[in-house]
Specification:
Length: 385
């Protein structure tokens, strides 16, 4: 493949594959940015400490070449992003046009190489899934990126690039399911008028970017479900069983891309939702048998303990590993080594953030607004042929 640099990878591995990189270990958006915390490196370390990530399931992420990114992004934007990394500064015209050097999308040392690495993982995933399988790329999920500008902590929209790669490699009908606390605005921008792309986004109402209305329909294949603050596990179970699974099943996809953002759990500072990580894992498991190709991405998530635990549990779920009630000492050491410095003080972990992977369930009565929104989308459900 001319547009991605990568080492040869076995194509016949029957087990799920995890695409990762060391670039994320010491990369930060800045001392006070929400993405100052370690995430992907924690998942890699925790899964290895659990014995869940043998070398034959790990794939080193390539870094996408600039030309590979222009399937969605403009050449001018990619050039500006590379130049900003090289100079470690931007001019005011570049800031205004491309959204670089802002509080949300600051200049930092790996501002091109880091997103180009996660994009390279998704481009590679499309190739590796040509014959089917399961791939996990927790560095992915940057769903806010727009063609000519950075947006919402996202410099590139690698879910869009992933879907394009899947389509180039044989998948025709692709379901994109997004359970991040924030609307998948970049994905809807890219595929709202594409009849072979099913778009489902479950996100907090009135949360940035304040898009993704229940009434958005695209060509009939866009399903947004804005949910109220306080969304809990039983709310999400209804959404899973009555909305997500029937829609995906009816669509009969060749591939599913799941954006599994970790910012909808109670402990995350960037939403007011109250899910446990069990809700995410249940969706991961339920979607797995519905298509021959399955790509699971990360996304939002800003509490280093809840992100590391949730995304490690995603990998366990994809592999059918049992999650122990209490983590073994090597895994607890990984979590104990994390630190989260807030604007005024260091935030200390709760004991169960160190000792356990699985949250206690967070049940409750289904919110009337959730039930009504689900009914609205069910009424719109269409059987694709």
């Amino acid at each position: 493949m001319a547009d991605v640099i990568h080492a040869p990878v076995m194509q016949t591995t029957p087990q799920p594959r995890f695409i990762g990189s060391e670039i994320y270990r010491h990369s930060s958006y800045g001392a006070w940015h929400p993405l100052r915390v370690p995430r992907v490196s924690t998942v890699m370390d925790l899964c290895r400490a659990m014995g869940w990530l043998p070398s034959n399931q790990f794939v080193l992420s390539p870094r996408a070449k600039p030309a590979a990114l222009t399937g969605f992004h403009t050449p001018e934007y990619i050039a500006a992003l590379k130049a900003a990394e090289a100079a470690q500064k931007v001019t005011e015209p570049v800031r205004q046009r491309h959204g670089l050097g802002t509080p949300s999308n600051p200049v930092f040392p790996e501002m091109y190489r880091r997103p180009a690495t996660s994009a390279g993982a998704s481009l590679l995933a499309g190739e590796l899934l040509a014959r089917g399988g399961i791939i996990y790329s927790p560095a992915g999920g940057t769903h806010h990126g727009l063609p000519d500008r950075a947006n919402g902590f996202c410099y590139l929209n690698e879910p869009v690039l992933a879907i394009q790669s899947l389509r180039r490699n044989g998948a025709q009908r692709i379901a994109f399911v997004d359970i991040d606390a924030h609307h998948a605005d970049g994905g809807e921008y890219a595929f709202a008028d594409h009849p072979d792309s099913l778009l489902i986004s479950v996100h907090e109402i009135n949360r940035w970017p304040r898009s993704g209305a229940l009434t958005d329909v695209g060509l009939g294949q866009v399903f947004n479900l804005p949910v109220p603050a306080g969304l809990h596990d039983d709310d999400m179970a209804l959404i899973r069983d009555d909305v997500i699974l029937p829609l995906v099943t009816g669509f009969r996809p060749d591939a599913i891309v799941l954006q599994c953002g970790a910012d909808a759990v109670t402990e995350d500072p960037q939403s007011r939702l109250t899910l446990s990580n069990n809700a995410h894992w249940a969706i991961v498991a339920a979607l797995r048998p519905l298509a021959p190709r399955y790509l699971v991405l990360g996304g939002g998530g800003y509490n280093p303990w809840s992100v590391g635990r949730l995304w490690s549990g995603v990998w366990a779920t994809l592999n059918g590993h049992d999650i122990p009630e209490v983590l073994p000492d090597p895994a607890q050491r990984v979590l104990s080594a994390l630190r989260w410095d807030g604007p005024q003080r260091r935030i200390m972990p709760q004991p169960h953030w160190i000792a356990r992977l699985r949250d206690d369930p967070r049940p409750g009565p289904v919110h009337p607004d959730v039930r009504e929104a689900a009914k609205h989308l069910i009424a719109r459900q269409k059987i694709w042929v």
